[in-house]
Design a protein that fits this description.
The chain has 378 residues and is α/β, with parallel strands linked by helices. The chain contains 8 helices and 16 strands. Strand 15 and strand 16 form a beta hairpin. About 20% of the residues have low confidence.
């Protein structure tokens, strides 16, 4: 009798132990799922527990008052020599009760010292780009780095790469970002801003820079829409949605310097949106236009002869102000190239753009590629 009782106790102990182990493994698996979900969310994968953002955001105002105060980007470079990447910590701040916490530069990457400071009008910070009406946690730019931002309270419907070709326009870039970022966040877009800077001595080649920006952005950000954006065009109306449709979409329809009228039917310069597959279909921009003018008209030819159609929002909505700037010298040979746009489009473009990445810089409001290329034709 005593022996049977002991056997019963042993069996009961084994069962209890087995149940305990099952409970422990269950808790570990649950914790693992949570960690994997958090990791996916941090890497930009949508969190399925969030509802879908509305197609038309309820936070849009329509016409916005532009902030045209002059400013420059505070690019504080802390280098990582092993990866040839620089991380910027100077403006990684946020606003709380109208005060700004600004992370000042320190000697180590990822370890900025935080100080309170009065904001200089010459440096852009989150306080300047965040609209006060969007000061809630859903729309603050806390966490933006490398130019990437997404809403925290819903899954965005749009994942946009903004490509800005650039050289020697630091004030234009600062003013653009002060006015563009609030529009993108109000529209509840997930976006990442890429600035592609030409650092060689050749004449400016915007077509090459936009091709390079597309190729390099695809390595860093999983986007479903790419928008090529001139550095001097400021959006006036946040109801001009930064998105791609089933055809290439020209967004900068009405510019103040053109009396808010479309200059000609096939104009696609300024701000142009593409599905990635469509941009590959037209083989990107031509690599052969130097100085000012030509590459956008060449792109219009590529769109038409690829069987695509140029679409536009209404001129009442797609309004832009052009910032003051010195225009590049016009290239005399652009008309010669334009006469042969159709013949060149398959052999001159995205597939064979020559370039070398000098460095990559991750700043608060954008990722910058510094590039150079040897000019083979003049």
């Amino acid at each position: 009798m005593v022996r049977c009782k002991r056997d019963y106790l042993r069996v009961a102990a084994v069962c209890v132990g087995a149940l305990y182990l099952i409970y422990i493994f269950g808790m570990l698996e649950k914790t693992s799922r949570i960690v994997r979900t958090d990791a996916k969310d941090l890497n930009g994968t949508s969190n399925t527990s969030l509802h879908i953002c509305p197609m038309i955001s309820p936070y849009l105002k329509g016409l916005r008052k532009l902030n045209l105060d002059s400013c420059v980007m505070d690019e504080c470079k802390i280098g990582d020599k092993h990866r040839n990447i620089a991380l910027e910590n100077c403006n990684m701040g946020y606003c709380s009760n109208l005060d700004c916490k600004i992370a000042s530069c320190s000697g180590e990457i990822g370890s900025p010292s935080v100080t309170y400071t009065n904001q200089s009008k010459h440096n852009i910070t989150e306080c300047e780009v965040t609209d006060i009406s969007f000061s809630g946690h859903h729309h603050a730019l806390l966490g933006q780095f490398g130019g990437h931002w997404k809403p925290s309270h819903c899954q965005p419907l749009r994942r946009i790469a903004i490509i800005i070709p650039f050289r020697d326009r630091h004030e234009n870039l600062c003013v653009l970002l002060k006015n563009l970022i609030p529009v993108l966040t109000a529209q509840l877009n997930e976006f990442r801003i890429f600035v592609v800077e030409q650092v060689d001595e050749s004449s400016f080649n915007k077509g090459r820079l936009m091709n390079i920006g597309f190729l390099e952005a695809t390595k860093m950000f999983n986007f479903d829409c790419v928008i090529f954006h001139d550095v001097d065009l400021l959006p006036e109306n946040d109801q001009n949605i930064y998105q791609c449709t089933d055809q290439p979409r020209h967004l900068s329809v009405a510019v103040d310097t053109h009396n808010y009228k479309l200059m000609y039917q096939y104009l696609v310069g300024g701000v142009l949106a593409f599905r990635p597959r469509h941009f590959r279909l037209v083989n990107g921009y031509s690599n052969e236009f130097w100085g000012w003018g030509g590459e956008d008209d060449d792109m219009a030819v590529r769109i038409v002869y690829s069987g695509l159609k140029i679409t536009r929002p209404s001129a009442e909505t797609a309004r832009y102000t052009m910032a003051n700037h010195t225009r590049s010298k016009k290239w005399a040979k652009r008309y010669i190239l334009l006469r042969k746009s159709k013949e060149r489009m398959r052999t001159d473009g995205l597939k064979n753009v020559p370039y070398h990445i000098v460095s990559v810089h991750l700043y608060t409001f954008y990722t910058k590629f510094e590039v150079l290329f040897n000019r083979s034709k003049s």
